[in-house]
Design brief:
This protein has 18 helices and ten strands. By secondary structure, it is an alpha/beta fold. Helices cover 45% and strands 12% of the residues. The longest helix has 39 residues. A hairpin with a 5-residue loop joins strand 5 and strand 6.
Length: 475
Amino acid sequence: MPKNQFTSICHLLFAVLALSLTACSTTAHYPINPAQNGADKKTEYRFENLGGGNSSDHLAMTLFFSGGGTRAAALSHGVLEELAEMRVRWDGRERILLDEIDVISSVSGGSITAAHYGLKQRQHFAEFPDKFLYKDYQNSIKDKIFSLEILTQLWSPTYGRIEIVANKFDQSLFHGATFGDLARQGKRPYLVLNSTDMSSGARFAFTQEQFDLICADLSAIPLARAVAASAAVPVVFSPLTLKNYTSTCNNDTKQELNRDWSKLPPRQQLRLRELRSYLDEQRRPYLHLVDGGLVDNIGIGGSLDHAMFSGSAANLAQILGFDNLRKAVFVIVSAETDPSLEADLSPSVPSMRRVAMALADIPINRNTRESLIQFRETVSQWKLALKQKFGNDTEFYVIEVSLRDIADPVERELFMAIPTTLSLPKDNVDRLRQLGRKMLRESPEMQRLLRDMAAEPHALDTKMDARLPILKQKR
């Protein structure tokens, strides 16, 4: 045996021995989320506690950012960049549409953009590309996970790979910021970062209303941990764990959940059962959260929940202070993947890798399409409910920015082929940003909104990019 090969084997055996010895003594533990401390509801991170600044009470604007790694983060960032340049005249004064955003609901890669913008506001635009979009988070996280220091910690049953992701996001993007910091900042947009309950398959949102069910304090949760949970791809990363304290309190949210909801339709009864399961601490003392895209890859479910438990969209508008609502705008940014038909070209049995990829993609893509159909149906019901309640015709605008809607088939195929990893070449990132801006501006629904809001002439110009530069196909 060559000497250098023998030396390498000795080093490997030594590393294995070191790991074995430390496995018995490692005490690494994930941070335990604290219980509610009886704080005044007015100091907690809730929508009603955030000021709208100079935004109009006659206009409600919600953005939905899908999952999809850096691809989704870049596309949603481009949409924010475009909104920052859209000027309209509304309620007697000039406004920038970016400042009218009330809520951003997000999943996975979209949550990275949403959380950073929610925390940094306008500063986000100067920082985010260099701090995240152009960085190789994929290999940085992988190298950290396989470092000797972390490998020894991963032997602990109370420390998982998701902790490395959360720590990386915190060190690079959020610097210890918590939901309590967002509450003290007191500015919209209100963030709804979505994950999936691994055991029940239910949507779990990082909102105080959701945390009320487990009597936990959202204010103490670092933004980085919520983003990591939202992006915790199963198998690749471990779930993020929360402790359930539901037996220690009896807050308004729990009381509301225990009302008689027997008249709810079947779909909403299912959601009710999911939420009530958190009230059984004996059966569910801990919750384990994974990627939000598994159940709702565009983050629409939260809006449907709020309307359901407030009784109607009209009641919800009144509760949120939009009782004279004239325009409701929803911008859906979707970086979903396209189903691969490659296996259908061969008579061979698909490989395990191909099957595993299909098992991950099929539910996400189907849930996305079904959620969009349900949302459009619900918007029609909301419009009728608002007219009956307030007697006015509230205009609704559902604006979609989706890779699936790229007109040119070659261009669409190339953009859809961009991987949903946490690392992309700079030119791909820049093209995705440009695409987000272009598709938002050219959307027929956005053009209708701009006309209705007396936009400045340049805001209606759809010729900013006759055609995006075509991505080069990999050989």
